[in-house]
Write a structure and sequence with these properties.
By secondary structure, the protein is an all-beta fold. Helix content is 0%, strand content 39%. The strands form 3 sheets. It has a 15-stranded mixed β-sheet with strand order 1-3-5-7-9-11-14-16-18-20-22-24-28-27-26, with no helix packed on it. It comes from Agrobacterium tumefaciens.
């Protein structure tokens, strides 16, 4: 199917795509661009532009250009309980906003960097069966002015996912994944494969899943709980900023690890402190 080319003017235009793949240029002005159901490439150009999504299929490429540009998700008539927005790439987009009528998840194949993008009513991110990279270091709920955490799924592949300063849920799925909570009280789920989990600052819950997993401790602050540490298979990676490790019995069946006299803590659930020794630690 041939790609339709749709061009705006120097004014504020409303540009509507077709049912196939579209190439839409807004040029100057505060434009509204709606791609349709194909895999579309949309370029806002100068001005404060809005890219609209109403539940159509397709994986779209967004380039906002100059100005403050927004992806708007509204009036979704969809038979499912939630909506996936397929994003091929994002360039110069400052906000992604949903009307909140249905849970909305951003779906990517490859890399999706949402650092600094403001969001409203976006529930999370979904990867693909390939190797995905997703980061959402700072996410704001612009509707209420409050912050809200994200849910991220890697599915298959060797994924790298980095959360926000909020309380995130990050699930690597299959593959050898790297999961970084960043800040907040995060839940990291490695799933299948040999995963690396780093909670960051905050009281995090880390579950490696099957495979030989590494649990990384680099920063001070917080108490991280490892729910399924396997002695002899999993490892505890300690960064250069943490040292002076002390081990204590915790709730009779678990281990409390103290770093730097209380700068950070880790709890190994169901693992007696007598079974932990120097072979469990690697130094970064």
């Amino acid at each position: 199917m041939d790609m339709a080319v749709i061009k705006g003017t120097s004014y504020s235009d409303n540009l509507l795509g077709t049912s196939g793949p579209d190439l839409i240029y807004g040029y100057e002005g505060d434009d509204i661009l709606l791609g349709g159901s194909g895999n579309d490439s949309m370029y806002g150009g100068a001005g404060d532009d809005t890219f609209l999504f109403n539940g159509s299929a397709g994986k779209d490429y967004f380039d906002g250009g100059d100005g403050v540009d927004t992806i708007g998700i509204a009036n979704v008539s969809h038979i499912f309980d939630s909506v996936e927005v397929g994003i091929g790439s994002l360039t110069s987009v400052e906000a992604i906003v949903s009307d909140g009528s249905k849970p909305v998840y951003l779906k990517t194949e490859g890399a999706l960097d949402l650092t600094g993008i403001q969001m409203a009513n976006i529930n999370g991110f979904r990867g693909s069966v390939g190797n995905d990279y997703m980061t959402a270091e700072v996410v704001y709920n612009t509707s209420s002015g409050a912050t809200t955490g994200m849910t991220m799924w890697g599915y298959a592949g060797n994924d790298e996912m980095k959360g926000s300063v909020l309380n995130d849920i990050i699930d690597g799925g299959e593959g050898d994944d790297t999961l970084i909570g960043y800040a907040g009280a995060d839940t990291l789920l490695g799933g299948d494969g040999a995963d690396v989990l780093a909670g960051g600052v905050g009281n995090d819950t880390l579950t490696g899943g099957s495979g030989a997993d590494w649990f990384w401790f680099e920063t001070s602050g917080g108490v991280d709980t490892i729910t399924d540490y396997v002695d002899g298979a999993d490892k505890l990676i300690v960064g250069s900023s943490l040292s002076n490790i002390n081990l204590y019995n915790y709730q009779s069946t678990s281990t409390l690890i103290e770093f730097n006299g209380g700068a950070a803590y880790a709890i190994l659930q169901g693992v007696a402190s007598s079974s932990i020794d120097g072979t469990d630690f690697l130094w970064a």
